[in-house]
Specification:
CATH topology of one domain: Rossmann fold
Structural class: alpha/beta
Radius of gyration: 24 Å
CATH architecture of one domain: 3-Layer(aba) Sandwich
CATH class of one domain: Alpha Beta
Distance between the termini: 25 Å
Largest sheet: 6 strands, mixed
Shape: globular
Strand order of the largest sheet: 2-3-1-4-5-6
Order of helices and strands: EHEEHEHEHEHEHEHEHEHHEHEEHEHH
CATH superfamily of one domain: P-loop containing nucleotide triphosphate hydrolases
Length: about 400
């Protein structure tokens, strides 16, 4: 099953100015979506374009500024280009005129740091052919695919590059095995508890709830959706008994008291964490809540940008619950979407990531990479809420089994 649109694989196009990155994107998409010019520095900010790749599905191509941009704003443009590496699933490094040097090595070092697979494309091969010795050296040194490309005679070259991208792209970037396949059997009843408060979007359900309903159906099972106020009534009247109850994490305390112990219980956020996050690191990091001290700072990472409300989970409820649980005077910083984290990561005592329904698995991994490298505990909204309310073991039991 291909991922939903909110989590399309991202492919970054990198290289020096005037190597033809924009022309390559236009050739791949078959459209003039990127500005092409002989003037160095034409691409200033990253430009995104969706397209379909056979065997992969919908992807997002990102055209970045030249890595050797010497203009006044060049430094900022280069910083943005490098920051893009944190958000992508694979990279295409574009070179021309057989030029390969420090700029390219710097990019490759960043690809490796963020564990981004990449290919090398020698563009404008209609003017200067790819040197065979350079091709063999790069293939041997970096163990990657290297090919020549001509944007103006793009039929075969586009097919070859598309095949190379498909071969290089990790399947985890575009294949989703579902949330519940290893947990429930066909024709199971799954009860979804979805509270409706002021933070709920008007007239619709939030994405994790929609995703879970679809996953229940994909597993040939029955989804029953209720508010927490109707949970007791539903449990007393539904037959057969639910195999699993999935709740919004914010209602964990109330729901856990209503759902009998023999019925498995977890949350939308925890299922997302198991599917997309570093679940083992989350399990290890969550109990570190007990080690927090007065004055500690906690980094809250949200995957989406939304208008905060008085019942906002990441900005209001969760910080209050953590302060009440620990009895400590703690400080919280919230960064939404893929906003660059302004503070040094080592300044934080803990990092707590939301479910991540709006971003890719790779983007979550990159977001947490620095914290894990510094040994900073990481966790997830749902796991923290379960721990605080004393149901951590129950909420994770289905995964341990």
């Amino acid at each position: 099953m291909e991922k939903g649109n909110q989590a399309k694989p991202h492919i970054g196009i990198f290289g020096r100015t005037n190597v033809g990155k924009s022309s390559l994107i236009n050739a791949l998409t078959g459209q003039d979506v990127a500005i092409v010019s002989d003037v160095a520095g034409t691409t200033t900010d990253s430009v995104k374009k969706s397209m379909e790749i056979k065997g992969v599905g919908a992807v997002v191509l990102i055209d970045t500024a030249g890595i050797d941009d010497a203009s006044t704003l060049g430094k900022k443009r280069i910083e943005k280009a490098i920051q893009t590496i944190e958000t992508i699933d694979m990279a295409v490094l574009v070179i021309a005129d057989n030029a390969f040097g420090d700029d390219e090595r710097m990019l490759i070092n960043n690809f490796k740091h963020y564990k981004v697979p990449f290919v090398i494309v020698h563009n404008k091969s209609d003017k200067v052919d790819l040197n065979e010795d350079l091709k063999q050296r790069l293939e041997k040194e970096y163990s990657v695919g290297v090919m020549g490309f001509c944007s103006f005679d793009s039929g075969k070259d586009v097919r070859d590059l598309t095949l190379l991208i498909r071969k290089t792209m990790p399947q985890t970037a575009y294949m989703h095995n579902g949330f519940l396949g290893s947990i429930i059997k066909p024709r199971s009843v799954v009860l979804l508890v979805t509270p409706i408060d002021s933070s709920a979007p008007e007239g619709r359900m939030i994405l994790p709830q929609v995703q879970m309903i679809r996953d229940v159906l994909d597993n040939d099972s029955v989804a029953i959706v209720v508010k927490e106020t109707e949970l007791g009534y539903t449990l007393n009247n539904v037959c057969p008994e639910p195999a699993l109850v999935i709740t919004d994490s914010q209602a964990f305390s109330k729901v856990s008291q209503i759902v009998p112990k023999e019925i498995a219980l977890t949350s939308f956020s925890i299922l997302l964490a198991k599917s997309r996050g570093n679940f083992e690191a989350y399990l290890k990091g969550t109990p570190c809540l007990d080690r927090l001290k007065d004055g500690d700072r906690i980094l809250m990472l949200e995957s989406c940008s939304h208008q905060p409300s008085c019942e906002d989970i990441g900005r209001v409820k969760l910080p209050k619950w953590i302060r009440d649980y620990t009895g400590k005077n703690l400080y919280f910083d919230v960064f939404a979407g893929l906003t660059q984290i302004e503070e040094e990561i080592q300044e934080y005592a803990m990092v707590i990531q939301c479910g991540g329904c709006m971003i890719t698995q790779k983007q979550i991994a990159s977001r947490l990479l620095a914290a894990l490298e510094y040994g900073i505990p990481v966790s997830n909204y749902g796991l923290v809420i379960a721990y605080i309310h004393g149901i951590f073991n129950r909420a994770t039991e289905i995964f341990r089994k």
